[in-house]
Design a protein that fits this description.
Blueprint (H helix, E strand, L loop, with lengths): L1 H17 L6 E2 L6 E4 L2 E4 L1 H5 L4 E8 L6 E8 L19 E11 L7 E13 L6 E12 L1
Parallel strand pairs: 1-4, 6-8
Antiparallel strand pairs: 2-3, 4-5, 4-7, 5-6, 7-8
Organism: Taylorella asinigenitalis 14/45
Protein name: Putative exported protein
Keywords: Signal
Length: 143
């Protein structure tokens, strides 16, 4: 009887912890979109990762202010703010990173790795009016 109870408890324990996520899924900029005659569309991979933990490598683009609660992660270092020019096309090699707590901007020429939850869908930052379609809600940022 004790062995059955122990086996049952081990089964429950393994079921509970099997839902714990493994390492974040690496996501590259080229995997985010498909180029179509109608422009950029979210890729199947991007859509399948919605709400999942992902990891991306890139560079912090120059932010709007020195202390920030979100920033743009770019595939390559950027010397200027990627969204400060109104006539520029939105690049397909950037993603918005949202932070739970404000941080001071990191050097723009050093690569960083961001891990967090992938969010998809239009969202407007209340403070800045900045609109994003794809975001990572960061849990970890490493230089």
């Amino acid at each position: 009887m004790k062995s059955k109870v122990l086996s049952f408890l081990l089964l429950i324990f393994s079921i509970c912890f099997s839902s714990v996520r493994a390492d974040p899924v690496p996501l590259s900029y080229r995997e985010m979109y498909n180029v179509t005659s109608r422009g950029l569309q979210f890729s199947n991979k991007l859509n399948s990762l919605k709400g999942q933990q992902v990891k991306m490598l890139g560079f912090m683009a120059p932010p709007l202010t020195p202390t920030i609660n979100f920033f743009v992660l770019a595939e390559e270092p950027m010397a200027i703010c990627p969204f400060c020019s109104t006539d520029a096309d939105w690049p397909d090699n950037i993603i918005v990173v949202k932070l739970d707590k404000p941080v001071v901007a990191l050097p723009f020429d050093r690569p960083i790795t961001v891990e967090g939850t992938l969010e998809i869908g239009s969202e407007v930052d209340v403070e800045t009016g900045f609109v994003s379609q794809v975001r990572i809600r960061a849990k970890k940022i490493r230089e």
